[in-house]
Design goal:
By secondary structure, the chain is an alpha/beta fold. It folds into two domains: 119 residues, Enolase-like, N-terminal domain (Enolase-like, domain 1), CATH 3.30.390.10; 228 residues, Enolase-like C-terminal domain (TIM Barrel), CATH 3.20.20.120. 40% of the residues lie in helices and 23% in strands. It contains 13 helices and 14 strands. The strands form three sheets. It has an eight-stranded parallel β-barrel, surrounded by eight helices. The protein is globular, with a radius of gyration of 20 Å.
Length: 367
């Protein structure tokens, strides 16, 4: 990019939605699904095209086209913070969380990719890395899986060198001791076992479940044991969970004030953030700064290809979620999606997010 083009005014902003079927029926403690929708944004400036995305309803694409594209078009592609603030203002009367936050996330992520491409640098180098690689943990173990599916998936991740695996629980709590036994047998003693209830349990149920999980199966991570809206219950779990068991949540934090509330109430040992929901990589790094200020560690939620760049830069980040659905989709639709080596991932050295859309493959799933 030449000095004359350094302002790089943003041109066309586009949004498309793709619906990708799962490879098997999936469920957790509170939800069942058979497909995942990705909303993909493209932004043009300075002869380059940035891409970013969110996972959510296709309504986010409509909101981007109708409300956000006109807000950022014409602004400098280098001034991501200005674009972010303008989008936040534009959705004031719509509500800044939910679909609006997801739409902002997709645009913001595309802006970071675009800026990296304009300057010829990976996004991690734009922000500033504190590490070269970051560990990932395998995430799946859906409650819809039978014993063979559960054992095969979690066991494969253990064999590949991932330090931990996570399974869904609490759809049928009485069946979970058997399922956790199957998981522990599949991964052996040297791999951490994480569980995620997706907010399905009451406080008393969650306390009893945590005791069984820790003492019987060596579980060291209990995600959303109660609803993420129940700050009192989360704090109770954090205070009374077995020693060595981390209580975590944050995936449904769309706004900065939600992270603030979770951290100030001392609800978690590890805060999670999702750049497809929390207003993009810009929002993710703001949440990371809040975690660092509260001396709480951080992990990303889902979308590992997107989160890699930010997690290499956030001092509070300790690992990333290697979520089965999104790993599968990101490798299907993009060249450049990361692959773990010895249980960790790093950038491929390409500019921006390091991704190229597989246009022909993506077209098969476009809505």
């Amino acid at each position: 990019m030449t000095l004359q083009d350094s302002r790089a005014p943003i041109g066309k902003v586009g949004a498309r939605a793709f619906k990708i079927p799962t490879d098997a029926p999936e469920s957790d403690g509170t939800l069942e699904w058979d497909s995942t929708t990705m909303v993909l944004v493209t932004i043009e400036a300075g002869g380059k095209t940035g891409i970013g995305y969110t996972y959510g309803h296709q309504a986010a694409a409509v909101l981007i086209a109708d409300k956000l594209s006109g807000v950022v078009e014409g602004k400098s592609a280098l001034d991501i913070e200005a674009c972010w603030m303008a989008m936040l203002s534009a959705v004031r009367n719509l509500g800044q969380s939910g679909i609006a936050a997801m739409a902002i996330s997709a645009v913001d992520n595309a802006l970071w990719d675009l800026k990296g491409k304009l300057l010829g640098l990976p996004v991690a180098d734009l922000i500033g890395k504190v590490r070269q690689t970051i560990p990932v943990y395998g995430s799946g173990g859906f409650t819809s899986y039978d014993d063979e599916q559960l054992s095969s998936q979690l066991g494969r991740w253990a064999e590949e060198g991932l330090f931990a695996v996570k399974m869904k629980v609490a759809r049928d709590p009485d069946a979970d001791p058997h399922r956790m036994a199957v998981a522990r047998s599949a991964i052996g003693k040297g791999v951490d076992l994480f569980i995620d209830a997706n907010g399905a349990l009451s406080e008393k149920q969650a306390l009893a479940f945590a005791k069984t999980a820790a003492e019987g199966y060596g579980v060291t991570w209990f995600e959303e044991p109660v609803s993420s809206n129940d700050l009192k219950g989360l704090r109770l779990m954090r205070d009374r969970a077995p020693a060595g068991m981390a209580i975590t949540t944050g995936e449904y934090a769309f706004t900065l004030w939600t992270f603030r509330d979770l951290l100030e109430a001392q609800t978690v040992d590890v805060i999670q953030a999702d750049a497809t929901r929390c207003m993009g990589l810009t929002g993710f790094m703001k949440a990371a700064a809040m975690a660092e200020a509260h001396q709480v560690t951080m992990s990303s939620h889902c979308a590992p290809t997107l989160h890699l760049q930010a997690c290499l830069c956030a001092p509070a980040a300790v690992h990333m979620e290697w979520f089965h659905d999104h790993v599968r989709i990101e490798h299907m639709l993009f060249d450049g999606a990361p692959v773990p080596e010895k249980g960790a991932v790093g950038t491929n050295g390409e500019s921006g997010l390091g991704l190229t859309l597989k246009a022909a493959e993506a077209a098969r799933y476009e809505l």
